Amino acid sequence: MPTMADVARSAGVSVATVSHVLNDTRPVLPHTRQAVLDAIDRLGYTPNTLARSLVTARTRSIGLAVSAISNPYFTEILQGVEAAALEQGYSLLIADPHDDPEHERKVVQLLHERRVDGMIVAPSADPRDLLAYLRRHQVPTVFLDRLVDEAAPHFDQVCAESAAPTTRLVTHLADLGHRRIALVAGRPGLSTTGERITGYRHGLAHAGLPYDERLVVHGDSESAGAERATAALLSLAAPPTALVTANNAMTIGALRALRDRGLSVPDDIALCCFDDFAWADLFSPRLTAVAQPSKEIGAQAVRVLLDRLATPDRPSRTVRLDCAFVHRTSCGCPEQHPKSERGTAS
After folding, report:
1. Are strands 288-291 and 141-144 parallel, antiparallel or unpaired?
2. Helix, strand or coil for residue 315?
C-alpha cells in the first residue's frame, strides 16, 4: 500500500508538502498541489483518516440524529445531508433518537464520543437534556426541521416555513366553500406542530371562520395516531367537511380512517396535506399538498454547520426555506396538469 512518502517521491516534493495538500493546513502553489494530486491518483494512495484526525483534531465526520428515518420526509433530508457532506469530503454517522428525550441525549453523546466534528439534530419535543449536553461540551450543532427557542442564541437552525403554507391550505379549502375545516396536528411540543396550528388559525381568520377547538386533534406525527384522531373528528355531531393533515405519515392514517368509514375523498370530505411524497400523485384522487424542500433542508444544514466549523465565533442564525403548494384534486378541484407554486404560501 503506497505511503505519503511514496507520494512525495513521485511528486518530487517533501512529505510536509503532501501533508499540507491533504490537510489544507498551508497554501501550496497550484502547480505543486496538482503534482501531488496527480501522484495520489497515479499511486492509488488512500490517506489514513485516523492518523490525520490525531494531527488535525478533525475526523471530517458529521453526526446526524434524526427520528423516524423510515419517514419519506426524513429519508429525503438524509439524502440531502449525505450528498452535501460527501461533496465536502465528510462522512456521516447516523442515529435515530426515536423522538424520546432520554434516548436523544444518549445517542448524541455516543456520536460525540466518536469524535464527530459537529452534529445535525432534529430535536424532540423536550430537548432540555440535549441542550444541556451540547452546551456543556460546546459541540458545534445545527438543529434541523424543528426549531428550539432556547437554542437560538447558541446554535444554528435550519427548517422550512410551516405557518404560512398551512394558512395557504386552509384558505384554499375555504375558497372552495368549506366552513368546517379540521386539522390533524402533530406531536405537541414540536415547533412544527405549533407553527402549523398557528397557520391553521390564521387561515380560518383570513376566511372569516370561527376557531373551534374540537376541530383540532393531535395525531402525534404518526399514522396510527392520525387514524385515531381522524376517527374522533368523524364522530362529532357536526363532523368536518374538509381536513388538513400536518405531515405525510398522518395523511396515511387519516386516509385509513376515512376508508374505514366508507367515505370518499373529495366527494364526502376534502383533504389537503402538509408534506408531498413520491406517491402522492398516484393516489386517487391525487393529493393536494404542501411540498417541503427536504433535500435542500438537509444540504443547507450541512453548509451552515461547515460555516460554523470554519468560523466558530460568528453569531448563530436561523435559515428558513420556502415550501411549494402542489395543486391536485383531493381538495375537490377539477383535474388539471399538476403544478406547484413555490413561495406563494409565504
Report:
1. unpaired
2. coil
